[in-house]
Structure formats: C-alpha cells, structure tokens
Amino acid sequence: xxxxxxxxxxxxxxxxxxxxxxxxxxxxTPAPARLIPSFGQQQPKSIVDDLTDKQxxxxxxxxxxxxxxxVNPFASxxxxxxRTRLTAHSFxxxxxxxxxxxxxxxxxxxxxxxxxxxxxxxxxxxxxxxxPHCNGGLKNAVDSVTSNKLKSKLWVGTLGTSTxxxxxxxxxxxxxxxxxxxxHPSLPVWVxxxxxxxxxxxxxxxxxxxxxxxxIPDAPKTxxxxxxxxxxxxxxxxxxxxxxxxxxxxxxDIIWINDYHLMLLPxxxxxxxxxxxxxxxxxxxHVAFPSSEIFRCLSVRQDLLRGLLGxxxxxxxxxxxxxxxxxx
Length: 328
Description:
single chain, 328 residues, alpha/beta, three-stranded antiparallel sheet, 10 helices
C-alpha cells in the first residue's frame, strides 16, 4: 500500500459513487406513479427467467440478480401519470408542471448532509447525491483507505441516469463539479441512453451475467445469447471509458478497472498507444467466473479474454474462479 502514496489511482467502474439530479433536492410530493415497462414495450424474457420456468432443469443452479445491481434501472420505471417520459437508465421521474422532469433517487442517509446544491451555466439548479447503482462494496472499500495511504484518486464511470437531455454547457459544468468532489473526485463518462440500454440491459444482464453464473439457455429461443448483437454497444461503451481515461491519464497513474461491464477496457487502453506500456493496469471481477465448458458458449469469448489479458493483474473472488480463468 505504501507504493500508492505518491501515485494517483484511476478507479473505473460502470457507475460513479455519486450522480446528478436536476431540480430542487426536495421536490414537492409527486402524483401517484405507476409501473410500466421500459420504453413502453414489454421487456424481453431474460435467460434467467427462461431457466427458472423450466421445472425439468432442476440441476441448474438457482440464479439470482447481481447483489450490487438489485435495482435494474431498465427493468421498470416509475413514471408520473401526468407526463410519460421513458428513458434508458433513469431511476425515477417526477413531473413539476411544464418544466422538464427532475430525476430523484430513493432517500439515503449516507452523505445526506453533504448534498451539493449547484446551478449549471444555464441557471438550472441541480444537486449531487449518492448514486443508487454504484457498487457499494467497492466504494466502501476505497473510502476505508486513509488519505495518508491513498492521497489521490479519480473515479471514472457513468451517472446512472438519463443524460440525453443534458446539453454540452451543462455537461462541462457537471464535469467541473464532479472533479472537485471532496470524497469521490470523479470523471463522468457520457454515454447515449440507447447505447447504454443495449449494453447494460441486453448484453450485460441477459447474456454475460447469466453465463458467468452457469446459466446457459436452451436454443433456439435465445438467439441474442449466441449471436450477441448487443455486443457492439458493449464495445462502444468500453471504448468511451477508454477515451475518457486516456484524456486525463498522467504519467505514474495506476488504473484499476472493476467488474464484467468493462472486460474489454484493459486491452483497449493498451492498444491505444496513448498509455505508457509501463502503466500498471489491474482488473477485478466482482462476480463469478465459470468453467471453460460454460464460457466457451459465448460467441464473443475470445474478445472478452483478450480484453482481460491487457491487464497486468486480474483478480477474482475465489481461487476456483481464478483457476477457471487460467484454464479457459
């Protein structure tokens, strides 16, 4: 740990510890909301649901939703009845008359007194609160490291809310505000909502996560799994993370990449030619890693493995997961 005292650590994770919400921090009580499927369409049946419905496959391990992603921002969106506004990864939409809806998350006592009330260059007020989609275990682990051991860090990730309606001036202002956060200095990665939707809800949750947890579907019902059309958006999101990190990278930085959402990022950074070959890159998988017999079912398995091999160090939760990776 002493080697980190004079170096900045760039922590790449899909969701930042904090997010931005436009409007007053304590808006008036909204009208009763109703649950409707994302984008006004019925959600496609996931692989996990398909497996759990099959009583004949009792040998298949029971698969639960990811522990750190208990709330999938795509699964169902509480929408105000007075104004329907469905977005790719909004958490809750509230209507306040003719103005644009403001986004609000569930209340949280942690850092509640440290809420930031700010205003964009356009004059529209916004505030910063803890991100409900952030990997809580990762954030708490980083926060537990004292400042004398880790003096400088930079989080890189998405806000976890709809961003298509945020203009360029607002984005610059938010970038500056997040860079000055005392506890979690951050660099937001701006991803179009539709691109994020396809990457996160389709490839990550319906293809990659089930495979990593030994859930292989029956053909031919799951064409998405074997052809992985949404993999293009997964690549695009990883490339946006790479571009963001390259833009702020400094000599001596240590890059720490987290979880299966960013498995291509180590290789993208290495192959860019803009990161020094001596730059340490680490990757930690916060979920399981299956045996080679399971992982080989992924049509994009070679791309994912090559992506991880761009890291100097790859970490797993258990020795068995590490052994599976070595044997794949």
